[in-house]
Amino acid sequence: MSRKLKSTALYLFLIMGVIIIAYPVYLTVITSMKTPQELSQSFFALPKRFNFDNFKAIVTNSGYPRTVLNTLAITVFASLGTIAVIPMVSYAIARNMWEKGYYKYLYFFLLAGIFVPFTVKMLPLIKVMSVMDMLNIPGLIIVYISSAVCEGVFLYVAFIQGIPMELEEAAYIDGASTWKIYVHIVFPLLSPMTATVLIKNGLWYWNDFLLPLLTLNKSPDYWTLTLFQYNFKMTHAINYPMIFAAFLLSMLPIMVFYVFMQKKIIGGLTNGAVKG
């Protein structure tokens, strides 16, 4: 097969992938701008005009601003907790796992947690949260942080092991403590992986449905955007344009954020793979 033919086949494959991914987004956008009458005539046709009434109805809904604040608070505080806890744990493991057996066993124990499906631990987790009175927003944030530890440690440890020990040894000679070395030398060098872990988990925190459904669906005061969409859909089971408008409003911030940050995601994963 010639080089030109391979290039053409690759581009055709990529174009097909773009269409498969973009077409559902296109349907979401055009449906959100239709009236129920237009939707009943044709699901795939463009709207007769750009109609933003569905978006206005959702934004002016009395519960919508609260759900946005809840989702934002959960995402921000869970992300901050993630980058505060996981790099420290990973640093301790990476620098001690080949000298002290405890750290090595801890690393493989956490690594095994990656392979445990959520459905296996779902019922025990919710039971423990209920007993400890954690079926609320702070409890969900703690669960998010702890759930991100296993994969986060796996990524960080490989990255930290690629950082030369000579940097830390020179700092020790100059009288720096372990904490100062971590804060002023090691943590800044972890910025590519920190960006990757932060964005990856931030997307999960923002879009997650199952954990909020299990922990926060008891009261509208605790709803996140995904729960708002779920209950909104149940209430407005016929008005599909308004339901699609709710989906689009939830998707828009995270899509814009991902477009600007995708290079950091790919760069962090690539560096982590190389520096193992």
From TrEMBL:
One of its GO terms (biological process) is transmembrane transport. Residues 68-261 form the ABC transmembrane type-1 domain. Pfam families: BPD_transp_1 (PF00528). GO terms for cellular component: plasma membrane. It is a multi-pass membrane protein. Keywords: Cell membrane, Membrane, Transmembrane, Transmembrane helix, Transport. InterPro entries: MetI-like, MetI-like_sf. The chain crosses the membrane at residues 9-30, 72-93, 105-125, 137-160, 181-206, 238-260. It is found in: Cell membrane. Belongs to the binding-protein-dependent transport system permease family. This is Raffinose/stachyose/melibiose transport system permease protein. It comes from [Clostridium] celerecrescens 18A.
